[in-house]
Amino acid sequence: MSEQRTGAQIMCEALIREGVEVMFGVPGGAIMPFYYAMWEYRDKLRHVLCRHEQGGGHAAEGYARSTGKIGVCIGTSGPGTTNLVTPLADAMMDSTPLLAITGQVFSHLLGKDAFQETDIVGITMPVTKHNYLVKNVEDLPYVFKEAIHIATTGRPGPVLIDITKDAMIAKTVPNWDVKLHLPGYKPTYTGNRRQIREAAEMLINAKKPLIISGNGVIMSEAAPELREFAEQLSIPVVTTLHGIGSFPEDHPLSIGMPGMHGWVHVNKAIQECDVLFNIGARFDDRVTGKVSTFAPNAKVIHVDIDPSEIGKNVKVQVPIVGDAKQVLQALLEELPSAQELSELHSRMGSWISHIREMQSKHQTRQQYFKRDENVVLPPADVYAALSKTMNERGNYRVVTDVGQHQMWAAQLLDYYRPRTHITSGGAGTMGFAVPAAMGVAIAHPEDTVWAICGDGGFQMTNQEMATIIQEGIKNIKIAVINNGYLGMVRQWQELFENKRYSGTPLSGPNFAKLAEAYYWKGITVERPEDVQAAIDEAYATDGPVLIDFRVEREVNVWPMVPQGASIGDAITDVSEL
Amino acid sequence: MRFALLRPKSLRSSALKKHTIVALVQDRPGVLSRFVGLIRRRGFNIESLAVGHSETPEISRITLVVESDHVEQVVKQLYRLIEVIKVSDVTDDPTVEREMVLVKIHSTPTTRTDIISLANVFNAKVVDIGTNSMIVEMTGAPGKVENFIDVIRPFGIKEMMRTGRIAMVRGARGHQASEYVEASNGHVAQPLN
Ligand SMILES: Cc1ncc(C[n+]2csc(CCOP(=O)(O)OP(=O)(O)O)c2C)c(N)n1
Ligand SMILES: [Mg+2]
After folding, report:
1. How far is the CA of A98 from the centre of ligand 2 (A)?
2. Which tens digit of pLDDT belongs to each residue from A186-199?
3. Count of A–B CB contacts within 8 Å?
4. ipTM of the complex
5. Are A505 and A483 in contact (CB under 8 A)?
6. Do domains B13-93 and B96-166 have the same CATH topology?
7. Whole-prediction pTM value?
8. For a FRET experiment, which of A358, B28, B146, B168 has its CA 20 to 30 Å from that of B54?
C-alpha cells in the first residue's frame, strides 16, 4: 500500500474507493495523464467516450438520476471544460449528484493565458455546489473524498475538480486515511420533533389537505414512506414534474401534476386546500404561478433538506428542515391509530370525490383525443400507443427533452416507480434527453429506455448516437416527436404573440436516415395506423432504434396557466384567450 | 488576508436599508469569491467588506455591509456555501463597529498645526510628515470616521484608504469560531494550494 502513485493513478483509485464504475468523457492535452492511468484500471472503471463533453455531462446526470449514485464526467482544459458548463448548471438546478473532473494547464502556467487555459473554477462557481483547483498531488485523496461527499449528501449537487497536469503526473505515496474537515457543512437530516408534531396535528385536523411530492422524495428513497403516510391519512397526492414516480399514478390517492401544464383539477385542489404539505419540492414558479394568489386558503408545511428553500417563494407556517425519508418516518410515528383517524378518513372521502368530480368535469388526457378531421397524426396518438405498449411490456424508463413533447410525456405516460421519469426541469436544457438516456441505459441494462425528444432538442446532442453504438448499448429507443417547430416557443407565439412565428419553424434531416447513418434502425411514421407497428418493431429489434413520428405541426399543450397568472386560471383551449 | 471594498457616496442608493452581516468562514482559496458572488447574483450593492483571521486558525471573519431590503434570504443562501460556518445579520443587535482610515492630507507649514490639533480632537494619529503632506491614521465608529474626513477635507485630501467596517456583537452573544470547529487532527484540511 505504501507504493508511490502518480496523481492520475490516485484519482482512479479514489474513484474506485468511492464506488464509481462508469465515467463519461472526452480526452485532451491537459487531462491526458488521467487517461494514461485509466487504462490500468479499465476493468473496474469503465470509460465511455462521448462525442461532446455536454453529452458526457448529461449522460452522467442520467446515470446519477436513475441510480442515486454519483455521475462522473471528464473534460480537458479550456473548451473541454466550458462544454461542461451546461450539464453542471442543469445538475445544480435539479440537485443531481455530479462530479466533473477537468484537466488544467501546468500550475506554473496558471494565469498566463497558456494554451487551452480557462479559469473553469471561476466560471463554474455559480453553477456548482462546490469546486476545487488542485495543484498538489498530495491533496488528491482528500479532495476527491470531500468532493464526492459534498456532491452526494445534504441537497445533492454538482462538484467540479480542476487538476493541473503536473499534479496528475507527480508521484506520492497516497494517504487515504483522511478525515473530512467541514465545519461549515453539516446538513440536517432529522426534522425538528416539535415541528413534526405540529405538522402531523395540522394534517390530522385538516378538512382539505393535500400532499405535494417532489424530487426530494425520490432522492432520499422515500417513496415507500410517502405511500404509507398518504394511505394512513388518506390524503391525495400531487406529484410535481420532478416528483413523478415518487407516488404510483394508478393509486387512488394520486391526482396528478400541478403547475403551468398541470391538470385543472390539481391546480384547483391546491387553490382550495386548507393544509398543503410539501415534501421535497421547491415551489418553483412553474408550479406556483402567481405566488401571491397561490394556495390562498392553505397553511403550508414545507419539508426540505435545504433551509434556504423554505420560505423562499411561498410563506410557510410549519418549516421542517430535514431529509424526506427521515421526516416521513418521524411523521408516521406521530400518527394515531386507524380508529382515531376514522373521522379524518370519512372527511377525506368527500374531499377526494370532490377532486375527482372536478377532474371529470375538466378532463385530463381525454381532451387530447377529440378528433379534428384535418389532423393526420396527433401527437396524443403516439403517446397513447407508447403508454399502452410500455405498460404491457413493463420495465421502462422515460427520459425526456424540453418542450411540448416533454409536457405530453409527463401528462400522457404512466409512472409507478421512482427514477423512471427523468427530465431536465429546473434548467430546461434542450439536448438533455439523448445523452441522459444513454447514461440511464448503461445503469439499467435490464430496462428499455425511451428518450422522448423534440425535433429541436434532438438536433442539439444527437451525435451521442455514435457513442451508443460504440459502447454496444442496445436497450435504448428514441421517439422524435417531430412537429417541424420549436414547438413550445411556437405555442407561446400562437397564444400570446399573434402567431408571429419568429425563429420557430424548423427543418431537420431525415431522422430515420440519420439514424441509419449512425448504424441504428430508423423508422419513419406519418400515419396513425403505423404508430403501433413501429413501436412493436422497436421492441422487437435487439438494438437501438429511432422512430421519427411526423406529428401534426401545430398542436398545443393543455391546460396552460399563462405566465404570471394564478394557477386557478388555466386556459384549456385557444378560444378561452 | 485582508480586503476592502468601498464605493463613493455619490453612487450609493441611500433609500435602501444598510445591513451589517457578520460571517465566520473556513479560510480556503476562493471563499471570498464565492461569498461575494452570491451577493452579486442578487444584484445587491456591497457598501463595504472586510475580511481577516479570526481567533481560530483556518477560520476567517467577514464583515459585510450591504444595501438591501431583502437580506434574510441572502443570509440563508450564504449557508449553501460549503465554507460558511455562521452568518448573522447584526444590524439591529448591540455591536461595536469600527473602521480605520489612512488619509494623506495636503499640508503647508501654516496648516500643519491646525491639522494636528483636529487630529487630536478625533483621537487620530499623525503617522508621517512630508514637506507638503502628512498621513493621519484614524480609527473609530464609522460615523466618526465620516465626520473626521468631512472636517479634514477642506485642507485637501491627496489619498485616502478605508478598511471597511468591522463589527462585533457586544456581551455574551455573538459567536466564537471555536464553538463550531473541532480541533484539527493531523492530516485534516490540507491547505489546498
Ligand atoms: C438549450 C436551450 N435553448 C433554448 C431553449 C428554449 N426552448 C424551450 S422549449 C423550446 C422548443 C423545443 O423544440 P423541440 O425540441 O422541437 O420540442 P417541441 O416543443 O417542439 O416538442 C425552446 C427553443 C431551451 N429550453 N434550451
Ligand atoms: Mg418540435
Report:
1. 29
2. 999 999 999 999 99
3. 71
4. 0.89
5. no
6. yes
7. 0.94
8. B146
Chain B residue nearest residue A121, CA to CA: B30
Q: Could you tell me the pLDDT band of residue A243, with boundaries at 50, 70 and 90?
A: very high
The pLDDT of residue B14: 59
**First and final C-alpha spacing in chain A:** 71
Whose CA is closest to A484, among A462, A463, A516, A510? A510
How far is residue A271's CA from residue B170's CA, in Å, rounded to a whole number? 47
Best B87, B192, B193 residue to mutate vs chain A (most A CBs within 10 Å): B192
CATH homologous superfamily of domain B96-166?
ACT-like. Chain A, domain 2 (3.30.70.1150)
DSSP secondary structure of A429-469: -TT-HHHHHHHHHHH-TTSEEEEEEEHHHHHHHTTHHHHHH
Long-range contacts from A537-541, C-beta under 8 angstroms, 24+ separation: A538/A477, A539/A389, A539/A393, A539/A448, A539/A477
Inter-helix orientation angle A531-540/A379-393, to 10°? 40
**Residue among B25, B30, B59 whose CB faces A121 most closely:** B30
Test mutation, A124, A125, A172, chain B, max B CBs within 10 A: A125
Domains (range + CATH), chain A: 5-172 (3.40.50.970), 193-361 (3.40.50.1220), 366-558 (3.40.50.970)
Task: Flag whether pLDDT at B43 surpasses 90.
Answer: no
Please tell me what DSSP assigns to residue A369.
G
Give the separation between CA B106 and CA B98, rounded to whole angstroms.
25
User: Strands, DSSP E only, in A15-154?
Assistant: 22-25, 46-49, 71-75, 98-104, 130-134
B147 touches chain A (CB under 8 A): no
Q: What does the domain layout of chain B look like in residue ranges? A: 13-93, 96-166
Q: Which of A58, A286, A402, A552 to mutate to test the pocket of ligand 1 (most atoms within 8 A of CB)?
A: A402
- Homologous superfamily (CATH) of B13-93 is ACT domain (3.30.70.260)
**Residue A242 CA to ligand 2 centre (angstroms):** 22
For residue A104 and ligand 1, the question of a CB distance below 6 A is answered with: no
Quick one: closest CA in A to B37, which residue? A126
CB within 8 Å of A212: residues ≥ 6 apart? A237, A238, A239, A240, A243, A258, A270, A276, A277, A278, A279, A281, A287
Q: Is A487 a residue whose pLDDT tops 50?
A: yes
**What's the CA-to-centroid distance between B57 and ligand 1, angstroms?**
50
List the catalytic residues of A: 53, 115-116, 165, 488
CA–CA gap between residue B111 and residue A384 (Å, rounded):
91
Tell if the CB–CB gap between A184 and B77 is shorter than 8 Å. Answer: no
CB of A89 closer than 6 A to ligand 1?
no
CB atoms within 10 A of CB B33: 13
Q: Which region holds residue A530: left if phi is over 0, alpha if psi is between -120 and 50, else beta?
A: alpha
Which atom of ligand 1 lies at the shortest distance from residue A459's CA?
15
